[in-house]
Amino acid sequence: MSTTLTPARRTEPCRQRGDQPVQFRTSLLERLAPYAYVAPFFVVFGVFGLFPLLFTFYVALFDWNPIGDQTFVGVANFERLFADSRFWNALVNTFGIFVISTVPQLVLALGLAHLLNHARLRWAAFFRMSMLLPYITSVAATAIVFGQIFDRNFGLIGWGLEAVGLEPVNFLASRFGSWVEISAMVTWRWFGYNTLLYLAGLQAIPREMYEAASVDGANGWQQFTRLTIPSLRPIIIFTVVMSTIGGLQIFTEPLLVAPESGLTCGAARQCQTLALFLYEQGFGQFEFGYGSAVGVVLFFVVVIAAALNFFLATRTRGGR
Hints:
Layout: H1 19-59, E1 62-64, E2 70-72, H2 76-82, H3 85-118, H4 124-129, H5 133-136, H6 139-149, H7 156-163, H8 175-203, H9 207-215, H10 220-231, H11 233-248, H12 252-257, H13 274-284, H14 288-319
Helix pairs in contact: 1-14, 2-14, 3-8, 3-11, 6-8, 11-14, 13-14
């Protein structure tokens, strides 16, 4: 006698009428939640970053009077700007200060980070954290101190030159001298910050790599150039790009180094930067259209310089 087994019928729980909308709403909220988390940043950036930038482009096309009429002039402000010798003077000053402040600053930061990472120091954490002291010091206080150091009559550098039989130098009287004084302030303020960035990258490199290099016969310089530098290349690219952006927008140090000359940074504008020239035209002369044109040009100068540095750094990495 044979029996036939029939498969058991699959039973499904009864779906309630309101389950599907609830699941749909839950999945929709899950998809929208990440956008809600990042939305505050984009809202703040749009209000305080993107809108002022676009409005600057708009104002640059007008003869803008803040309490009067606004007359559309097209590219006349840019034509006037490129024919203005004060603009070219500020551009040269900006790049000059940027070069002689950024290059020594990053080289000093990289060397000091390498020393702190390998040296056997007591209270090593104290020395490492002390690198942030210049960064948290007031820029005004830094300007006062360096103004006294570089002062021709009572400065420490002038005293040292007299001690060896040389004449004291009035740094602010010449273009290059004022560049040196401002660059010293910038280097002092930022080299500690960059040192900590490099030091963090160095501490992420395994010690075994240096030990293996020593076993293979590599000396200290070879380890530094062939192991340390390639390992730190992403951080170096970051510091170079950020230093470029900050260095080309330098404003506070030139403003404070020669307060008696106002916004011109010297009678001959020997240390006036683009950011200071922008402020002079916009808020000193109340030529908002012309000042906005300076801001637009400064924006493109910073973008092109930062992109060029990034391209060269990544191209070097690809070549190696």
